[in-house]
Design goal:
Layout (H helix, E strand, L loop, with lengths): L10 H14 L28 H20 L7 H8 L3 H5 L5 H12 L2 H5 L4 H51 L4 H76 L3 H77 L3
C-alpha cells in the first residue's frame, strides 16, 4: 500500500474537492462540508467569528467527518482526486476538472421551465425524496432555532447566579456566625454560573452533527436536480425525434428528392441513437442513485438516533451535576444554626 504524505489543506481546497465529487458522481448523495461561519448562534450579542478557537476546532472535526464519510463510501472513496487530496499538495487539483456538462447546461433551463412541464414524466420516487428533504430541512431548522433560543435563556438564568454568589460572599464578611456556610453557598452559586458556557459549548458539538444533516438536505436537493436534468434532456430528445419523424412523413406526403429523404432518414437515425444513449444513461443513473439513497437513509437513521442519544445523555449528565450542586447549597444553608 502506498504511504500517504501529510499535506496542509485550506477550507477552499475542501470546497474544490466537494465540487469535484458532486460533478463527477451526480448519482451520489455527496457528504456536505461543515459551515464556514457559525449559524444558529445562541448568544445574540456574539459575533460570528470564523477564527474563534472553539468554532475552529469544531469545524476541523466537521472536515474530518467529511473525509471519513467519503473514505467509507464504496465508490467515491476510491476516487483518484480524493486519494491524491489526502497525500499530495499540488497534483490532486489537476484531476478536479468539470464533468457531466449536460447536467450543467440544462440546469438553468430547468429553473425557467413551467412547473407543469417539470412535472411531466417525472419519477415519483425522486419527487418523494425531494418532499422528504424539504420536510427534514424544515424540522432541523426548527430544532436548531428553538435550541438557540432556549440556550440563550438558560445562559442568562444561570449567569444570574454569579450575582447571587457575589451577594453571598459579601454577606459572609458581614455576619461571622454564618460566614462559612454563606461563603460555601456563594461558591456553589458561582459554580453554576461558570459551568454554563462549557456546557453549552459541549452541546454545540452535538448541534454541529445535526447541522451536518441540515447540510445533507442541500445535497439531496442537488441529487434530485441531477435527476431532473437528465430526465429533461431525455424528454427533449424524445420531442426532437418525434418532430423529425413528423417532418419526414409530411415530406413524403407532399413529395421530395431522394437526397432529402436520405438526409431525413439519417437525421432520424442519429436522434434515435442519441435517444437510446440518453435512455441508457438515465436508467443507469436512476439505478445507481436509488441504491445510493437507500444507503444514505440507513446511515441517516443510525446517525440521527446516535445524535438523539448523545443529546439525552448530555442533558442527563448536566441535570445531575446541577442537582448535586443544589443539594450542596441546601446542605450549606441547613448547616446554619
Amino acid at each position: 500500500m502506498q504511504k500517504l504524505s501529510l499535506a496542509t489543506r485550506r477550507y477552499t481546497d475542501f470546497v474544490t474537492l466537494h465540487n469535484h465529487l458532486g460533478d463527477k458522481y451526480p448519482w451520489v448523495v455527496i457528504p456536505p462540508l461543515p459551515e464556514k461561519k457559525q449559524s444558529f448562534m445562541w448568544n445574540s450579542e456574539a459575533v460570528s467569528d470564523t477564527m474563534d478557537p472553539d468554532f475552529v476546532d469544531r469545524r476541523r472535526a466537521g472536515l474530518e467527518s467529511f473525509l471519513k464519510r467519503i473514505a467509507s463510501h464504496p465508490e467515491i472513496g476510491y476516487d483518484e482526486c480524493f486519494l491524491k487530496f489526502l497525500g499530495e499538495y499540488d497534483n490532486w487539483v489537476d484531476l478536479s476538472k468539470p464533468h457531466n456538462n449536460i447536467l450543467k447546461d440544462t440546469e438553468l433551463t430547468i429553473k425557467t421551465m413551467n412547473a407543469s412541464l417539470r412535472g411531466r414524466n417525472s419519477d415519483n420516487r425522486f419527487e418523494a425524496i425531494k418532499t422528504y428533504s424539504n420536510k427534514l430541512q424544515g424540522s432541523i431548522n426548527k430544532i436548531l432555532t428553538y435550541r438557540a433560543k432556549q440556550a440563550e435563556r438558560l445562559y442568562n438564568v444561570d449567569m444570574i447566579h454569579l450575582h447571587y454568589g457575589r451577594i453571598f460572599s459579601e454577606l459572609s464578611a458581614v455576619d461571622n456566625d454564618i460566614g462559612d456556610a454563606v461563603q460555601r453557598t456563594g461558591h456553589y452559586m458561582d459554580s453554576i454560573a461558570s459551568a454554563i458556557s462549557p456546557a453549552l459549548e459541549d452541546e454545540e458539538v452535538i448541534m454541529d452533527q445535526l447541522k451536518e444533516y441540515l447540510a445533507f438536505t442541500n445535497s439531496l436537493h442537488t441529487f434530485v436536480k441531477n435527476h431532473d436534468s437528465l430526465n429533461y434532456n431525455l424528454n427533449q430528445l424524445n420531442n426532437m425525434s418525434s418532430n423529425k419523424e413528423t417532418s419526414g412523413i409530411m415530406s413524403r406526403l407532399f413529395g421530395y428528392t431522394a437526397a432529402a429523404a436520405e438526409r431525413d432518414t439519417a437525421a432520424i437515425e442519429a436522434y434515435e441513437n442519441k435517444k437510446i444513449e440518453a435512455r441508457a444513461n438515465y436508467s443507469e443513473f436512476v439505478d445507481k442513485s436509488l441504491e445510493n439513497y437507500k444507503a444514505f437513509e440507513r446511515q441517516k437513521d443510525s446517525d440521527l438516533m446516535k445524535i438523539l442519544q448523545d443529546y439525552v445523555a448530555f442533558q442527563t449528565k448536566y441535570a445531575q451535576k446541577g442537582l448535586q450542586t443544589w443539594k450542596n447549597i441546601l446542605q450549606s444553608i441547613q448547616s446554619i444554626e
